[in-house]
Amino acid sequence: MRAAFRVLWLTPLALAACAHQQVAEAPPPAPPVVAQPAPPVAEAPEKDRAADTAELKKILSGPIAHFEFDKAQLTDQDRQKLQALARAMKAHAASRIRIAGNCDELGTVEYNLALGQRRAEVARKYLVDLGESGRVETISYGEERPVAPGHDAEAHALNRRDDAELLSTR
Question: If we measure between CA atoms, which residue out of 85, 75, 162 comes closest to residue 131?
């Protein structure tokens, strides 16, 4: 009888303990997300686009970097030119360029091609760091495209450069 009394006494306690536990209900499902089309971007007036293109072409009209003998490091002046180029490219968001690395005639053809590529890549990387990734490609011409035909130190210095050309504006 005592055992029956204990069971009867413990049963309400067990039921009371269970009554205080709340079952977590799943939150109602969120309404489906419907994609909204982006508002149309107002195109710049033709006059502004022409000015942006003219500025970009002006920046690209000469070398964008010059290098010391056997080096592929940008100077402060080169960085300023590349910053101006990056600003012009931002203003003309569809523009794409190619940076060409060039060398003087000293060294082997293979070495100069590799050095020209390193020079082009250092300028490309700087532009990428400024936010222009995906719109800049590189090529190396080594010693094949000199701007100064001489064989002296002055001609060599002028030929150690990066040039850039506009591939497209749309």
Answer: 85
Q: Which of 64, 57, 96 is nearest to 83 (CA)?
A: 64
pLDDT in tens, 48-75: 556 667 878 888 888 999 999 999 999 9
Give the rounded distance of the alpha carbon of 128 from its chain centre. Answer: 4
**121: amino acid identity, one letter:** E
CA torsion 129-132-136-142 (nearest 10°) is -30
Can you point out the beta strands (E) in the chain?
65-66, 96-102, 136-142, 161-168
| DSSP states along 133-160 | TTSEEEEEEETSS-SS---SHHHHHHHS
Note the pTM of the prediction, 2 decimals.
Answer: 0.68
* Residue type for position 120: A
